Amino acid sequence: MDKTVIKQVLLDQKAEIGRIFNQPIIEREKLPDATRMLTQKMAKVITGIRRCGKSVLAHQMLKNCSYAYINFDDERLAAVHAEDLNDFLETAKEITPDFNHLLLDEIQNTSGWELFVNRLLRNDYNVIITGSNSHLLSKELATHLTGRHLSLELFPFSFREFLLQNGISAGEDDFFKTDKRAEFKMMLERYIQEGGFPEVQKMDLKENYLRELFDKIITKDIVMRYNIKYGRDLKEMALYLLSNFASRAAYHKIKNIFEVKSVHTIKNYFEFLEESYLLFGVNAFSFKLKEQIRKPKKIYAIDTGLINAIVPKISLNIGRLMENTVFLELKRRGMDVYYYTDGHCEVDFVIKDGLKIKKMIQVCYSIESLETKEREIKSLVKAQAKLECQGSTVITWDTEGDETVKNTKIQFIPLWKWLLCF
């Protein structure tokens, strides 16, 4: 690749850094963890869905460092090959001679990148990598950088980050103030409707932005990357799964719906959607691995705003949107999450800690109906006895308190408070 073009691109990208820091930036909850990683002499890898703020987080963690920046998600670098990467390094040194950290944004777009990074590490460069595909990064890192990298996953804004972006503080004292509690509930409605992608708040046509983002993820991060022949089938399957968020989905059922010949193809498509962070499949809990694999996965989306933008409104349900919101927060906190069913009752979330069950969580918009309340409690009590779990929580829209049923203590907590206290 022409080194003059490389220099022009890197100079343009360096100017982007100034523009990033010249606008208000929300400090992400992951920033302390990301900053601590800088002291380790290993590759630092930040993964997450496209547009969730990975690059900005990387710039934040490097703010007080001398660093060079190369963004490979640039149409001018579409033809970059492994043999060009050293020219990029030389050009970066010309532009920033004293840099001691190197930020490589979406480098997995370039074949052979992992060998280049390995060489950088051998030469004592402090390397930070971002990527929007968990599998491509993890596969190459496991093969070529075993034991020489640290990983961090980033999601769209949490509720607390969403509040900060809108200029709203959330201290513990605020939980007891009537006007603040009302404000939190009002903002939670917006958060569930709009989601947490950082740029959405700046957009007038929010749903258009999210639909375009969905199309780009399907096309660029999956169809083009994996050379998928039937891209339309993949997109329709993605829409089907996202329409059935917070519900169980079996591979064989999906195969029959889309008249695909092989279940193997459906599994591959599902894995591609997971690797791009567009959706997640949660296993049923069982002490037997075979049982976990046999039962259908429960589907959750990366963002409730994305759901609202692409799913027909008639399919939406506030209780399911709340459940998806709880799932995402559990994932942000690195929880090992399952659902539980024995054919008669179901618990939305079983949180596993090593070999023990740490907590069980049920999500329900309202428990004002005695029948609904008894159903949710019955499932928790039954599952808690079978799994020998000591903690159960029911997350609702507005109910708060504690109850003891058959020696089982159950906490009821509003979603806004759980999100801010968790």
CATH topology of the domain at 3-153: Rossmann fold
Unreliable segments of 5+ consecutive residues: none
Q: Please tell me the CATH architecture of the domain at 3-153 by its name.
A: 3-Layer(aba) Sandwich
Within the largest sheet, what's the order of strands? 9-10-11-12-14-13
Describe this structure in words.
With 422 residues, the chain is an alpha/beta fold. Among the domains are: 3-153, 3-Layer(aba) Sandwich (Rossmann fold), CATH 3.40.50; 326-422. The chain contains 17 helices and 14 strands. Strands 9-10-11-12-14-13 form a six-stranded mixed sheet. Strands 2-3-4-1-5 form a five-stranded parallel sheet, sandwiched between helices. A three-stranded antiparallel sheet has the order 6-8-7. Helix 2 (31-37) crosses helix 3 (54-61). The model has no long low-confidence stretch (mean pLDDT 92).
Short description:
This protein has helices at 3-21, 31-37, 54-61, 85-95, 113-122, 134-144, 159-165, 178-194, 206-226, 231-243, 251-257, 263-275, 289-294, 304-310, 318-332, 370-387, 415-421; strands spanning 43-47, 67-71, 101-105, 126-131, 149-153, 247-249, 279-282, 297-301, 336-341, 346-353, 356-363, 392-396, 401-405, 408-414. It has 422 residues and is of the alpha/beta class. A six-stranded mixed beta sheet has the order 9-10-11-12-14-13.
